[in-house]
Amino acid sequence: MSAADLVPAVAPSGAGHAHDEHGHAHDDHDGHGHQPHLAHHFESYEQQFDAGKLGIWLFLVTEVLFFSGLFCAYVVFRVIYPEIFAFGHLFLNKQLGAVNTVVLLVSSLTMALAVRSAQLGQRKLLIGMLIATIACAFVFMGIKYVEYTSKFQEGLFPGTAFKPTDEALLHAAHLMHGAHGTAGHGEASHGEAAHAEGSHGEAGHSEASHGDAHAADAKDEHGFTAADRALIETTRKNMPQNPNPGLFFSIYFCLTGLHGIHIIGGIAAISWILYRSIQGHFTPLYFGPVEYVGLYWHLVDLIWIYLFPLLYLIH
User: Fold this and answer.
1) pLDDT of 69-82, one tens digit each?
2) Boundaries of CATH 1.20.120.80 in the chain?
3) pLDDT tens for residues 168-198?
4) Which pTM value belongs to this model?
5) Distances (CA, A) of 111 to 125, 253, 311
6) Which residues 6+ apart lie within 8 Å of 25 measured at CB?
7) How many other β-carbons are positioned within 10 Å of the β-carbon of residue 305?
8) Cβ contacts of 202 within 8 Å, gap of 6 or more
């Protein structure tokens, strides 16, 4: 008999199993064998969740600081050149911007319901709400694509490349008249348009006057009447020049473009969460990633809530 036979076997510290009274091995709690989604450096799901939430909040703070710099640039230029913003926003489609605002508000609701479903272990509802959130995000991006395409077609480029087409100028002129009655910059254009439209109405008792009326109502090869041409030329004449409204569109494309990139990032993150939800990874004990992505998505929505009035509702 050797000395080793007299020394009882000692299990190494941190071993992942122990023996019961019958000699059968079983996993102990120290190795997290019963908790597949608990990282080894955390003692509990609660500690892991709190650490992850602190991390996502720190990340969101950096995002807020990033956008704050752009918002400061917006404020500085708007204070210095208010006429640029008052004129430039006339080329934006308020209806599409409002629809996008509603779409993002709905997506925030569906994302909040997804987080709640994960907390309650309602897997089917979680999957459905994530799909609805992704669908809203794609609708938002589709509308932005329509807006961007129309801007490029109308020559509404940033900086010195800003060269609006006649259609864009006519649309802006009508908006100015509809919003202010005399259109601010375009009081003269309103008078010229009235003269162009009413020049044939002074002598309504002769065939010549009726001929003049038809000539005034006739459209040129581009589909514009004489009154339209008067509005276009006057709007072009009263367009701010130093600097030109391209400055407004530089800020517009910078803010909305960067926000759109964050929407795309959100789609990728939510799609990842959706895949894991389908795989059944989330339980009432482990739902942290769903809430982290939800917090990010709410911030993206909140930024748009500020962008919409700052860009589309300028007076």
Assistant:
1) 999 999 999 999 99
2) 45-163+243-312
3) 888 888 877 654 443 334 343 344 444 444 4
4) 0.75
5) 11, 27, 26
6) 17, 18, 19
7) 13
8) 209
| Cβ count within 10 A of residue 224 | 16
**87 alpha-carbon distance from chain centroid:** 23
For the chain, strand residue ranges (E) read: 17-19, 25-27
Q: Would you say 285 and 193 are in contact if contact means Cβ atoms under 8 Å apart?
A: no
**What count of other Cβ atoms lies within 10 Å of the Cβ of residue 234?**
22
Query: Is residue 31 within 8 Å of residue 47, measured between CB atoms?
Result: no
Can you read off the two tokens belonging to residue 247? 């400055």
What are 162's two structure tokens? 């800003």
Q: What is the maximum alpha-carbon separation in the chain?
A: 137
* Residues in CB range of 259: below 8 A, 6 or more apart: 300, 303, 304, 307
Amino acid type, 86: A
The amino acid occupying position 281 is H
Cβ-proximal residues to 140 (8 Å cutoff; 6+ apart), any chain? 100, 103, 104, 107, 263
C-alpha–C-alpha distance, residues 165 and 242, integer Å: 19
| Rounded CA separation 217/275 (Å) | 61
Rg (CA), the chain: 32
CATH architecture for segment(s) 45-163+243-312: Up-down Bundle (1.20)
